[in-house]
Amino acid sequence: MSDIKLVEAPPGIEGAGFFATSLDKAVGLARSYSLWPLPFATSCCGIEFMATMGAHYDLARFGAERLSFSPRQADLLMVMGTIAKKMAPVLRQVYLQMAEPRWVMAVGACASSGGVFDTYSVLQGIDEIIPVDVYVPGCPPRPEGIIDGLTRIQELVQNESIRRRDSDEYKQLLAKYGIQ
């Protein structure tokens, strides 16, 4: 918030002053506290997420109260649990149906690296098929870890430039995953 400063009003406008900041900062602040997560839970990490949404931990106080079970209305994909290779195309389709800007959080060891399931049928991390912004460690992670992951996503959203999605670096990242 140090980028926001009080400046004097232009001549002819009454009042002590008004706040001026960059559009990037204002949009980032608004986006970060109005995330609509889509939980993609397949196993025990999903149970921990349910605890995080409960009254004791109350994820709503972080501005992520409204869960969206439609990818077209969500902007944060939270992948929790083991993802089988047969499920990978479905997860990718859900990601592609989300509107830009979109962020991804891999919750737990299975979504991050395949966990203890080093087999032919388990995807060894969702970053093989979609880009991941934040990894939450644990098997399963505690609700505090999930909240920490959400606050890291909020920091990323607040500091992200509006033009980042148009940058060559971002386009190269999507091209690496075969996404146009």
Automatic annotation (TrEMBL):
Keyword check for Glycoprotein: no
Stretches assigned to the NADH:ubiquinone oxidoreductase-like 20kDa subunit domain: 44-152
GO BP field: aerobic respiration; electron transport coupled proton transport
Gene3D superfamilies: 3.40.50.12280
Leader peptide range in chain numbering: none
Entry's Gene Ontology molecular function annotations: 4 iron, 4 sulfur cluster binding; iron ion binding; NADH dehydrogenase (quinone) (non-electrogenic) activity; NADH dehydrogenase (ubiquinone) activity; quinone binding
EC nos: 7.1.1.-
Names of required cofactors: [4Fe-4S] cluster
Keywords for the protein's UniProt record, in alphabetical order: 4Fe-4S, Cell inner membrane, Cell membrane, Iron, Iron-sulfur, Membrane, Metal-binding, NAD, Quinone, Translocase, Transport
Amino-acid positions noted as binding [4Fe-4S] cluster in the UniProt annotation, renumbered to this chain: C44, C45, C110, C139
Reactions catalysed: a quinone + NADH + 5 H(+)(in) = a quinol + NAD(+) + 4 H(+)(out)
Entries under InterPro entries matching the protein: NADH_UbQ_OxRdtase-like_20kDa (IPR006137), NADH_UQ_OxRdtase_20Kd_su (IPR006138)
Subunit structure comment from the entry: NDH-1 is composed of 14 different subunits. Subunits NuoB, C, D, E, F, and G constitute the peripheral sector of the complex.
Family: Belongs to the complex I 20 kDa subunit family.
Role, per record: NDH-1 shuttles electrons from NADH, via FMN and iron-sulfur (Fe-S) centers, to quinones in the respiratory chain. The immediate electron acceptor for the enzyme in this species is believed to be a menaquinone. Couples the redox reaction to proton translocation (for every two electrons transferred, four hydrogen ions are translocated across the cytoplasmic membrane), and thus conserves the redox energy in a proton gradient.
Protein name stated in the entry: NADH-quinone oxidoreductase subunit B
Organism (species): Solitalea canadensis (strain ATCC 29591 / DSM 3403 / JCM 21819 / LMG 8368 / NBRC 15130 / NCIMB 12057 / USAM 9D) (Flexibacter canadensis)
